[in-house]
Amino acid sequence: MSSKKTLWSLIALLMVLTLALSACGGAEAPEEAEAPAEAEEAEQAAEAEMGDGNMVEVFSWWTGGGEAAGLDAMIEVFKAEYPDIEFVNAAVAGGAGTNARAVLATRLQAGDAPDSWQGHAGWELIGTYVAANQLEPLNFLYEENGWLAVMPETLIPLISQDGDIYSVPVNIHRANVMWYNPTILADNGVDVPASLDEWFAAMDTLQAAGVLPLALGEQWTVLHLFETVLLSSLGPDAYSGLWNGQTDWGDPAVEAALADFDKVLSYTNADSASLSWQDAVQLVIDGDAAFNVMGDWAEGFFRELGSEPEVGYGWAPVPGTGGNFQFLSDSFVLPIGAPHRDAAIAWLTVAGSKAGQDAFNPVKGSIPARSDGDVGLYGVYLQSAMDDWANDTVVGSLTHGVVANDSWKTEIDTALGLFLTDHVTATFQSALVSAFEASGQIQVGSEAPAEAEEGSDMGGQVEVFSWWTGGGEAAGLDAMIEVFAEKYPNIEFVNAAVAGGAGTNARAVLATRLQAGDAPDSWQGHAGQELIGTYVAANQLEPLNFLYEENGWMDVMPETLIPLISQDGNIYSVPVNIHRANVMWYNPTILADNGVDVPASLDEWFAAMDTLQAAGVLPLALGEQWTVLHLFETIMLASMGPETYNGLWDGTTDWGAAEVTTALEDFAKVLSYVNADAASLSWQDAAQLVVDGDAAFNVMGDWAEGFFRELGSEPEVGYGWAPVPGTGGNFQFLSDSFVLPVGAPNRDAAIAWLAVAGSKEGQDAFNPVKGSIPARSDGDVALYGVYLQSAMDDWASDTVVGSLTHGVTANDSWKTEIDTALGLFLVDQSVENFQSALVAACASSGPCQ
Amino acid sequence: MTTKNERILSIALVTPSILAILIFVYGFIGWSVRVSLSQWKGLLPDYTWAGFKNYIDLFSDPRFHIDIRNTLIFTITFVGGSLLLGLVLALLLDQGLRGEGFFRSVYLFPMAISFIVTGVVWRWLMNPAGGTRVSGFNLLFNNLGLEFLVNQWHTTPKWGIAAIALAAIWQMSGYTMALYLSGLRAIPGELREAAQVDGATEWQLFRNITLPLLRPITLSAMIILGHISLKVFDLIISIAGKQIPLDVPAIYMWQTTFDGYFFGRGAAIGILLLISVAVLIIPYLAYTLRTEAEL
After folding, report:
1. Which domains can be identified in chain B, with CATH numbers?
2. If you measure CA to CA, which chain B residue comes closest to A694?
3. How much is the pTM?
């Protein structure tokens, strides 16, 4: 019985959950489906009307009350000016912006940035988004629109870093406002205090009279009170100095300020922790408390309660802060890589305009950031605030994100919370000092540099993805990073290398990141179809012709290379190094002992290997399957010649043709000379057989040369080299290259990296260490060894053809199909089946489709 | 009253894990099925409906034929070998010799090692090189005068996969032994004594009493070993890398998906693997549930 009931309740639960899930899905699905269609329509309309920009998605946490109404009013202004741009209001409700900021962070991590978003002007934005290179500087907007003339001079440094302004403030709120109950003050014969001492005296009187002097709410309102008392006690210069490192947090003046603050706290209600800011200010209106310190949004709340300005409530600057305007501001930003940059700029222009600000602020109950707002639109309190804004010294608010980054603010808040439990000023001060050292130092430090740099002053970071994690590759990359660091000292290089599987792991990780929209700024890939077939086909890469033209790379890279790394006339990568695939390594001693010359044609090679086999020497050393594929491509080239070989990859050579059959038969014959245990050997094992004297020949790319040197073998003594017989005059190349993804998070920095990767300096730093030759033909030969010098000569003069195994000639899908066909051939040894599988592979994934 | 509250509480407690399983197991199985029915090929998702094309193509794909053949050979060798060796070891340990605990641990140790480590060690042991480069087992056989045992191991044409199964047997037979040992200990002594009184020989005892009573153990062991065998991937990769003669569905799935970007085909292989494991497991689960219900 009972188990049946449990079962039923479980089923019911599952159904409810299913319903809930499908409800969520149902709500979202139509939006997603409609959005692209709308965008497309708008795009067509916009093409006729204005450049690009057909919609603008603006992210905020203004979802209710005066905020939402103000935003709507400003959107009206925007629509009037830009009727062709669709405005998408991506507001997220809840938690006074906490939810919205979490959603924003998720979207930014997924590479799905809105076109603009709201944030508190100052270090909350700078410390979070500028530090993460998400924002574009907006100085150009300020200059174009003359905003510098209409915004207070003292404001600009507070919303800038290193001279770059990063946001457009829309509204201004004042933090240092003291609200009071005029009736209580009059009843107790107390004047509105103008200094801290007067305030203390007034509060003593009130306390003696049995009135609560100062109403206080939950902890963030205590932090708010704290910042105003700091300003009052230290004065504007020393207060501002706290945030830019000029005032020492351990200073006796700070200690005195903390003592003042502790004294202020002694006048507050005991139940503050249980009150919201509204509860606390209401105590003033209701006649339960004399004073309250709160930002000027409290004024809107008083009006809602039906209280009259200057009758039910009065205001003054927090005692001791007269002449100072401690501000906070909501502002909008321009993200790097905004999906609709032009439309976003149009939105920012409206947000900074007189019309936009005068539409927004009267409704929201704040004052415009511009000093030329139309006073007639604003109420009594706001008019007085506008006067002060234009004349006062502007300082920033801590609680509301202007002066400190989020980490620092959180630590100060923690220190304050501890102080509220123990009221020990010394502990509080030392906690504030350590907060500065832990999180403030970074902020201060970042303002310091600017001059005294030699290279470009471009800043930010660049994340470069590769599978160079060890050996000569990693060392070469490090050498090139050094060149980059010299030229761009302010760009932080993030080396996102993934180890393992000769790039297999890295490419799987990259695919996952790209599918998640989290592209690195640049990544390594084999030049050619491996990149083009995979990433260009998926529209992930920008063409780089402009870089080639700007830097004159066309003149220094071999002509026959360019078509192999291009598609439809667009070049998609910057090759850094060149390796040669068609190299035959041999053991000079074995050849001499057996009276064999270095073969130059396939027939000579077969004859030589017959001789060697008869003498009991293993003619050709071979390794695991990919080395067989490598051998395969060189034999195809040897047997067919470069034109026919190239034709295999562009569709002009028929895979079913008789010459392919001949080449496959040649390949089958070559395989008859190899070791039986090939499948169990790595390429190193196979190559080592040659230097150890166990085999006469091995075909492997020229990275084998570095391995031979590591084994302590001498070039031309322990090992010799020649092109694979029949491929003389051809350079079958492969190349590691870097790309520029569409929507690179730091596009400028990525371009800087690519410029270094293609430069003579960069390539001459990388290649001697990696053991490869530069893609440029003007490398400094003296830096390279004997083998590499000969390869550089060949690179400059030979016909360049691409390697299959290493991604030049075929896309990944095609290559794995060919690899499968080859694997099956190794099992059944049937040339006929092999050829028909190759024909099928070309039809399914190659150009024969 | 309390029982009702307890029931609500218990449902509330299991809900998160049910949700997580719904999403991360069944949701993703559903997603894989969807991908396997699409023509997604390339970096970015393409859910264009392709019906069962991926599946049909697989069954005419010579590489997949090799995969199925290899899986069958591997499963038969590995499951059979582990069961046999496990049973023999368990019978030996059951004789009550001294140091039983020590030997039990020694036989169980290999199970504590990952397949990757086993693979690397056995790769060295099963080195097929001849002539001057001979090493591992082949060297041992040569030195012991057992040249007829020298062989190509995993590079043997057609049957190389059985050599991989040797490494797997080495790793898992200790576990099978532990299963059998517990089964042997559970056989009541009275049964054996009764048979002995009736004059049964040792072989008859084993044939007619021990083996039939071990049948449930054998079934469980077959299920556990069987599903490991169907999903084998790491052991083969670490011994032989990716090569067609030793290909199995899991390797094909990995290679075609992440090297070749045939996401649709890779998902189809994954679903076929899932079905093959389900065919093995579900009857067993049904059987166990039924027996439990009878008890």
Report:
1. 63-264 (1.10.3720.10)
2. B132
3. 0.57
